[in-house]
Amino acid sequence: MVSAFLCVFAVLAILIAGNAADHLMGVHALLFFSAIIAWLVGIALWAGKLGDRDPFDETQYEDTLVKFGVAASMFWSLAGLLVGVIIACQLTWPNLFYFEELGWTNFGRLRPLHTSAVIFAFGGNVLLATSFHVVQRTTRARLFGGMWPWFVFWGYQLFIVLAATGYLMGITQSKEYAEPEWYADLWLTIVWVAYLIIFLGTLWKRKEPHIYVANWFYLSFIVTIAMLHIVNNLSLPVSLGSAKSYQLFAGVQDALTQWWYGHNAVGFFLTTGFLAIMYYYIPKRVDRPVYSYRLSIVHFWSLIFIYIWAGPHHLHYTALPQWAQTLGMTFSIMLWMPSWGGMINGVMTLSGAWDKLRTDPVVRMMVVSLAFYGMSTFEGPLMSVRAVNSLSHYTEWGIGHVHSGALGWVGFISFGALYCLTQWLYKRKSLYSVALVEWHFWLATIGIVFYIVSMWFAGIMEGLMWRAYNDFGFLEYSFVETVEAKHISYIIRMVGGLLYLSGAMIMSYNLIRTAMGHERINQPADANPVSQPPAAAELQPAE
């Protein structure tokens, strides 16, 4: 079934390549066709080695796919963070890192490459891997759909490659966090619908009566992202052979739709999905139940109801009607309550196991991620207040806020989950090196502090300089003077990003050695095997 489906798209790709209206569309069509052919060859080689073995044995968990997801997450994290350091250098030393003859290296093309790589490539693969792992363990059922979960995984990688190569070639619809053009959006829609069906199908055939709360968070993430993606990317292509399209919405309607999408991409991709990770991996790692299951249910319903209304706070002092701006601001302030309720629930899950903060750096990393979640979900509502927004908007303060949540919350909870998955799936008594996890933790934490503090200073200074007037009523500072004043902050930001990247490289090395079964000599005494769920592939009682 999957192979027949791919053959249809291979035919479409070669037809579009032969009738492409522009060179870039032809390149992408051939890239898509080549990927599909390689995919089909891979399926054929895999099927030829099966013999009498049933690859979709319902008594076994589909853990190989999760292992692939862990590997993809590691790869894309390094790629995305490396590009982030490069563009930080471009902003800091533009005379050294600007190459006029190499247009694809310009900041305008590398910046969306960075954001998409860390959010959708790294974050998306973490969510795919963890959701496929958690839903199987909490339902005591193998993933629904046979080969289709693999279609979702490889289809998602193909979307990432299409998006990334498109940015470098200049293919973009110029919408923040939604830059890929119409054909990539359509492919992602197909992949995402398959993802939703697989997740729902697994829940439907569950052998455990109760649906654990983490699955509710995953499901809200999958459903809402599908809705946001479809509505925000409604467009009309110039032709089927053209990479260019025109948006259905225009003017203030387009702006409102974009930031309804943009803020809820943060809310449902980078928040609810990773809260699902928190609600499974922290309790399993510390071998304690969720502090308050009732609070987790309240957290879920209040968060998903309130978050969806907060987007207009991105459009203060614009043509958007003020009642809509106020609505977004009001719901943003209301988000304080469910966000902090979830943070407290996660932290208090360590009740009776606080010693693990000292003995297990993976637990420490996940708990610190909750601290950053609490800080960023306090700062976000604060910045949505119109008076504060008049100072903070369009400045580096917003960049600092985003990276407090992205590096501290999303990054750390993801790293913690990857450490857990690698140890559990490969059935290791412990990670290859606990000391390397310590190095990762401290390098990344110091890097985050460097990053966000430098951007706070730069942003507040920038905002104050923009609104300074002289005695004659003219602006006190020119724009270039505000840029020059941020130079030291830019250097510190770059150093922070480099430290964070170094930590991720250490993690990748540690995970590879763990997967290979290597054991470190003279492992510290605190590196005793942590409590872990049964790692065997056979179906177990709900974990």
What report would you give on this structure?
With 543 residues, this protein is mainly α. The protein has helices at 2-18, 23-48, 63-92, 107-139, 148-169, 182-204, 213-232, 251-286, 293-307, 322-334, 336-348, 356-359, 361-384, 386-392, 396-425, 434-466, 479-485, 487-515, and strands at residues 235-237, 245-247. The chain has a two-stranded antiparallel ribbon with strand order 1-2. Helix 6 runs antiparallel to helix 7, helix 13 (361-384) packs antiparallel against helix 15 (396-425) and helix 15 packs antiparallel against helix 16. The longest helix has 36 residues, at 251-286. The chain starts with a helix and ends in a 28-residue tail after the last helix. The relative contact order is 0.09. The model has no long low-confidence stretch (mean pLDDT 93).
What is the number of helices? 18
Order of helices and strands: HHHHHHHEEHHHHHHHHHHH
Largest sheet: 2 strands, antiparallel
Q: Please give the alpha-carbon distance between the first and last residues.
A: 32 Å
Strand content: under 5%
Rg (C-alpha, Å): 24 Å
Biggest β-sheet: strands ordered side by side in the sheet: 1-2
Low-confidence sequence ranges: none
Structural class: mainly alpha
Pfam family, one: COX1
Family: Belongs to the heme-copper respiratory oxidase family.
Main location: membrane
Region (Disordered): 523-543
